């Protein structure tokens, strides 16, 4: 079964405006399948094959002659030397759009240790510099909840929400519901540890890294503390820093920065740790659909799910927006503060069907402070508690209880 992706139209449109389109993203987000569907008439070659990668890396001119545009080139990170010659090939017919469609697990974050170019592949910054004015770069996340439920004709009810949390949002798991998600995530972790991680780190003790992953999962939605993580696993704090950077580069986790009007403070304060895929988080925690509601970790899993969904929606529909969390000296905290179009929205998450007025108290307090902040008061947008309510309803004059599934509609507006 094919699950229609909202980003597909955006990819098709942008390919008509640039000679090169680069689609990045983590493994299993469906990059190859999506591009082959959007560009059915393009030739296709994957550099996952050793022979193709060696040809592209060592004889790029011969490679480009053998695979002329229009062409989809998959896994381009395995041949960073190819980019030096792409510009020449593009400029032969500069006004021809959509010549090269490239995909790969390309790093946005610095690698945690010095690597050779062949070893580390190519970064987004290097692509932007070498193909300046000739390319557009997009990042593909896993599926939106709405894409899954609409295609599968499922209602956004409690049972299906539990299934979403535990099964996750990777396309392959929803294309074929017969695939056991436990086995899928075991294979996913094995592939990540054995293949991707060894390109980023000199990890001799993979069992220690697996324990590190599970320690991170227990702390999802919490402030990142490298020393604490290192102590739990029995590694040096510097190693914990290195492994966190590797997980960021591999799109396994995201670090959410705190909000400060002073930009400098954002760089020195501790971020919060979230997983990009809630299904992987539940797998690391050993949670099933039956056991999810009974665990005291349900609140952090729910917060992680809302963050991942919010991040995917904003990335698609409001790419200039930014997400932060808010915490002040009085320990008052807001899960998510979203900056978009000159306004700031405040969002809390609660695993409940019926939040009440008390759940809005902190939001109102922080909103009042931000609205009166000096010298630059902020313009407030939406204030809401994201929950499992059947429908939206007001908690106070300014704060509403917001159904999680309606996030997409609200952001679209």
Low-confidence stretches: 108-120
Category from helices, strands and their pairing? alpha/beta
Please report which band the strand proportion falls in: under 5%, 5-15%, 15-25%, 25-35%, 35-45% or over 45%. Answer: 15-25%
Which value, in Å, is the CA radius of gyration? 22 Å
The amount of helix comes to: 40-55%
What's the count of strands?
Answer: 13
Number of domains: 2
Shape: globular
Distance between the termini: 30 Å
- Give the strand line-up of the largest sheet: 8-9-10-11-13-12
Largest sheet entry: 6 strands, mixed
Number of helices: 20
Average pLDDT metric: 88
Describe this structure in words.
The protein is of the alpha/beta class. It folds into two domains: 7-139, P-loop containing nucleotide triphosphate hydrolases (Rossmann fold); 143-413, no CATH class. 44% of the residues lie in helices and 16% in strands. It has helices at 7-14, 31-38, 50-58, 60-66, 83-91, 117-120, 124-130, 145-151, 158-167, 171-175, 181-200, 206-218, 226-233, 237-249, 263-266, 278-285, 289-292, 298-317, 361-371, 407-412, and strands spanning 20-24, 43-46, 71-74, 100-104, 135-139, 253-256, 272-275, 322-327, 333-340, 343-349, 380-387, 393-394, 400-403. It has a six-stranded mixed sheet, with helices on both faces. Strands 2-3-4-1-5 form a five-stranded parallel sheet, with helices on both faces. Helix 3 crosses helix 4 (60-66) and helix 9 (158-167) packs across helix 16 (278-285). The longest helix has 20 residues, at 181-200. It is globular.
């Amino acid at each position: 079964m094919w699950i229609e992706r909202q980003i597909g139209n955006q990819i098709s449109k942008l390919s008509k405006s640039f000679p090169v389109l680069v689609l990045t993203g983590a493994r299993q987000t469906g990059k190859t399948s999506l591009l082959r569907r959007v560009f059915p008439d393009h030739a296709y070659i994957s550099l996952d094959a050793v022979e193709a990668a060696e040809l592209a890396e060592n004889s790029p001119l011969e490679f480009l002659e053998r695979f002329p545009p229009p062409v989809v080139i998959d896994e381009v990170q395995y041949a960073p030397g190819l980019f030096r010659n792409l510009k020449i090939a593009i400029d032969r017919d500069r006004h021809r759009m959509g010549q090269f469609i490239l995909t790969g697990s390309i790093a946005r974050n610095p690698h945690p240790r010095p690597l050779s170019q062949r070893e580390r592949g190519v970064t987004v910054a290097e692509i932007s510099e070498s193909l300046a004015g000739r390319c557009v770069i997009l990042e593909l996340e896993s599926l939106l909840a709405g894409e899954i439920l609409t295609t599968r004709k499922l209602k956004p009810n409690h049972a299906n929400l539990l299934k979403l949390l535990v099964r996750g949002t990777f396309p392959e798991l929803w294309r074929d519901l017969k695939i056991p998600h436990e086995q899928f995530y075991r294979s996913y972790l094995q592939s990540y540890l054995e293949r991707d991680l060894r390109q980023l780190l000199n990890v001799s003790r993979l069992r220690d890294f697996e324990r590190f992953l599970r320690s991170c999962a227990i702390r999802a939605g919490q402030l990142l503390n490298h020393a604490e993580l290192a102590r739990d696993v029995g590694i040096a704090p510097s190693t914990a820093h290195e492994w966190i950077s590797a997980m960021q580069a591999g799109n396994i986790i995201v670090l959410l920065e705190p909000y400060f009007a002073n930009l400098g403070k954002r760089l020195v304060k501790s971020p919060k740790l979230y997983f990009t895929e809630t299904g992987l988080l539940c797998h690391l925690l050993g949670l099933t659909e039956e056991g999810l509601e009974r665990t005291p970790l349900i609140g952090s899993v729910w917060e992680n799910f809302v963050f991942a969904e919010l991040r995917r929606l904003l990335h698609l529909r409001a790419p200039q927006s930014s997400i932060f969390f808010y915490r002040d000296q009085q320990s008052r905290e807001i899960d998510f503060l979203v900056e978009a179009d000159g306004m700031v929205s405040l969002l809390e998450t609660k695993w409940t069907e019926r939040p009440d007025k008390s759940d809005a108290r902190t939001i109102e307090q922080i909103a009042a402070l931000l609205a009166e902040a000096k010298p630059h008061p902020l313009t407030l947008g939406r204030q809401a508690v994201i929950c499992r309510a059947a429908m939206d309803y007001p908690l106070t004059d300014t704060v509403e209880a917001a159904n999680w599934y309606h996030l997409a509609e609200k952001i679209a507006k």
